[in-house]
Write a structure and sequence with these properties.
It is built from 15 helices and 31 strands. By secondary structure, it is of the alpha+beta class. A hairpin with a 3-residue loop joins strand 7 and strand 8.
Amino acid sequence: MADSLGVGRLPARRYWINKTTKWIVALGGASVIGAITLVFAYLLWVVAPIFAGGDISAGQEVAVTERDVKLVDVSENGDVYLRLSADGIIEFYRAEDGRPISGFDLGIKVKQAQRVYPEVDLYSLLNEENQLTFISTRYIVSFADGVRKLTPSVDFPFGRKPIQLDNPSQYDVYLNENELMLASAKGRRLTLSRYRNVEPGMPLPKPRSVQLSAQHDVDYLYLGPRNEWLYAISQGGEIEVLDIKPINRITRLYLGRLTPEGEQITAMDSLLGRYSLVVSNPNGLIQQWSLFKDPTGTRLEPIRNFQLDQPARQFVLEPRRKGFAAVDERGTITLLYPTSGRIIASHDGQLSVGRPMVISPRSNLLISATTDSQLSTLVLKNKHPEISFSTLWQQVWYEGYEAPIYSWQSSSADNDFEPKFSLTPLAFGTLKAAFYALLFAVPIAIMGAVYTAYFMAPQMRNWVKPGIEIMAALPTVILGFIGGLWLAPIIEANLSSVLGILVVLPVTLFLLALGWSQLPETVTKPLAGWYGLIAVPLIIVAVYLSFDVGPFLEQHLFGGDSRTWFREVLGLNYDQRNALVVGVIMGLAVIPTIFSITEDAIYGVPQHLTNGSLALGATPWQTLTRVVLLTASPGIFSAVMIGMGRAVGETMIVLMATGNTPLMDFNIFEGMRTFAANIAVELPESEVDSSHYRILFLAALVLFILTFLFNTFAEVVRQRLRARYGSL
């Protein structure tokens, strides 16, 4: 019957069992490969948009009543356009079809108008009599018969009473919480007024005037971050920076130049946060200048350059990001982003230089008063401008830093914050944690496996091996809890004792081995294979002695304070939750895996190889090092690499025991932040589809690829070891 079925000598039942098993195994393997491929594809799908380039495309053109336009704006959602004219008429248009919604006569003849930094719906209006008035806009949403209706309104938040200025050539207004700062310039003289807890009808404070040290009149005026300093710049590039935080004691912080002598500024503005200025010169070079304050003084330096074909004549800033648009004399617009150093996109939009234009709060639309009777829009596709290869993997010169650095800091309580998305500290932290964990785990696990498989008595092995393997089931969150809240304070309080263990324990075990070797065989032979029972109490005694010796070492080697000695003598800072704690705790998590695989590999070496080696006169130790370990080397290497994979991907231990500080320092006494811990901490708080969200998925993709490369390398080495030593 078997022959008639064409299955050779196997019975039909066995044949079909084998066939079915083969297909089940193949299907299982294919499913694993398919699942891994799908995970990779999904991560890539989420990450891909951050590498897509930006784009600028023409939007709509809206015909409006001809007026002398002083300001244009767009609502938060981009569904309403705003236009303010010189005769004090403010008009609102529906973005969907350009139809007018409403209009208001403010009763003000407007000479100049601008947003009040950093608000997007508060404006300052300067009239022909040099009087300053503030207005704000809001949009009331209602529904009638299921149709959404927007009703714009205009308010005077500080009352209608204007503030009189002295015919300024430039002015700027900064609102910092409940503090409103007003600065105006006339020639080289500045006038400053600070209003706290501004309310309608409140008495105005006495202004403060100061004469600049610069040689030229002020053409650009910007209040610095939180009203702490002020920039005054001339068209010729001369700049003076003043400290105005104590308004009754104004001091000069910096006096210098933004352009070479004789070279004019063609366009200038201040970026979000007012920590940096962007300056364009006649040869098309745009520079980002940033102010630095350190113990030696204050300096202003260019930290980034952009080169365009034509000099910029006007800058348009993004209100909630560091990005900006440069418009040249031909009307061509170019999107740029300082942090990433990217030129995002360019478009020949035929914009009219010098006309009012603004970028929407969501940075997806630019509206311009192309003429007095037409509003034009440009659609901006620029979701992730802060991402580039340099921001992810190279040093970046951020605002306020003295030099380029690697940094991960994805959020801040300050709206002026410049996101820092360097993955390099996370990659470094991942490898650092794995290195110290393996440094602790590999010697213990492999030596323990060698002793258990080759020297230990079978009765003792039957208890020890399952006991160690069951440690792998211990939840890592428990280990992280123990490491962060129990072990870390103990190590901090007894650092000298912990370091003393590294000396006392080896010396104690060496003396035990030396003394044991001197005993007669009649004593040692009956205890062969049970040395572990003798060594364990001695290890406990050695650790106890180390803690007794610790205060002596602390006093005589480290001057009474080991942490201070490491910091002042070796330059090593000490954090309570550091790589030493992680190495010990994560090592305990990795040891069972490495031990179990290594022990199985050594124990599985054919007995005839061992017997043959011993029969040829080799000692047990020679047999171990020259036969057993070589034969088991593929399994031992696999154990180490699997342990590394476990350490690289560990989350809870590094999350609870490292301090989560993204540092680039190999110091064993400082913490780190790993890819896995960073994802666990920040992903729940990130905005879906934001740059932060997608970069966390990129971190997961990098971790995936890193683990894949480790495993591939391990498999290649394992196969070569098997080919070389498998025939022993």
